[in-house]
Write a structure and sequence with these properties.
alpha/beta, six-stranded parallel beta sheet
Length: 213
C-alpha cells in the first residue's frame, strides 16, 4: 500500500513538474520503472552515437551506463580510466559528444535544475559542449526553491563524500561543515534556469521511483 501511494503521489508530481519544465524549453519524459527508464534512454540515444557521462549514482544503480558498453556506441567510459590523466582525457572528450548523461542533485518546483560539483567537469558539460544532455532524476529530489535545494545538498553531501571515500569533516561527523578540505566536493553550485538558447538540448527523464541520493 505504501509503495502504491508513493507512486500515485510521484506520478502527479511528475506531471505537474513536467509542465513547468517544458515552459523552460526542457524536453521532458516520465518513466515509472527501471525497465521504462532503460527503454527511454535507448530511444533517446541512437546506436552509433558518441556518449559520455558525469559521475552519477542514479545512472550506475539503474544500469543505464551498461547500455553503452556493448560496442554499439562510441562510449567514453570515465569509470574505465586507470589513471587520473586517463580520466582527465575522457572528461575533456565529453565536451564533444552527441549525448552527455548525468543525474541532478535537486529540481525546484518551478522547473530549475540544481547541481553541486567537486571538479566542475559535470556541470561544465551540462552547460556547454555536448550536442544533447540527458538528465535522469527521481521526483523525490524536487524541492520548493533554491534555498531548499541548498539545504538538500547539505544533507546529502556527507553521504556522497563517504561513498567516494573522501577525507572531509562531514565524513567523520555525518553533517556538512562548509569545510575548506582539499577533498571537498561542494565547490561548484550551478542552477540551470532553462534550455531556451537551444530548445530541447537538455532532456530530462523524470522517474516516479526513488533513485540516487
Amino acid at each position: 500500500m505504501r509503495e502504491e501511494l508513493y507512486l500515485w503521489k510521484y506520478k502527479a508530481l511528475a506531471e505537474k513538474l513536467a509542465k513547468e519544465m517544458k515552459k523552460r524549453h526542457f524536453e521532458v519524459h516520465i518513466v515509472n520503472s527501471k525497465e521504462e527508464l532503460l527503454k527511454k534512454v535507448r530511444e533517446l540515444v541512437p546506436e552509433g552515437s558518441s556518449v559520455a557521462n558525469g559521475g552519477s549514482l542514479t545512472l550506475i544503480e539503474n544500469g543505464v551506463l551498461d547500455i553503452f558498453r556493448n560496442g554499439k556506441y562510441v562510449y567514453y567510459d570515465r569509470y574505465a580510466a586507470k589513471t587520473h590523466e586517463e580520466r582527465k582525457e575522457l572528461e575533456l572528450k565529453a565536451f564533444t559528444v552527441d549525448y552527455y548523461l548525468s543525474g541532478a542533485n535537486a529540481i525546484t518546483e518551478d522547473g530549475r535544475l540544481v547541481f553541486l560539483d567537486g571538479n566542475g567537469n559535470r556541470v561544465a558539460a551540462i552547460v556547454y559542449g555536448p550536442k544533447n544532455v540527458i538528465i535522469v532524476s527521481s521526483v523525490n529530489k524536487v524541492v520548493k526553491d533554491i534555498e531548499e535545494a541548498r539545504e538538500r545538498l547539505r544533507f546529502i553531501s556527507p553521504m556522497n563524500s563517504k561513498r567516494l571515500n573522501l577525507s572531509t569533516p562531514c565524513v567523520q561527523k555525518g553533517f556538512c561543515y562548509d569545510c575548506t578540505s582539499l577533498d571537498r566536493i561542494c565547490n561548484y553550485f550551478v542552477v540551470v534556469e532553462s534550455s531556451a538558447r537551444i530548445p530541447g538540448r537538455i532532456k530530462v527523464v523524470l522517474t516516479t521511483f526513488k533513485t540516487g541520493l
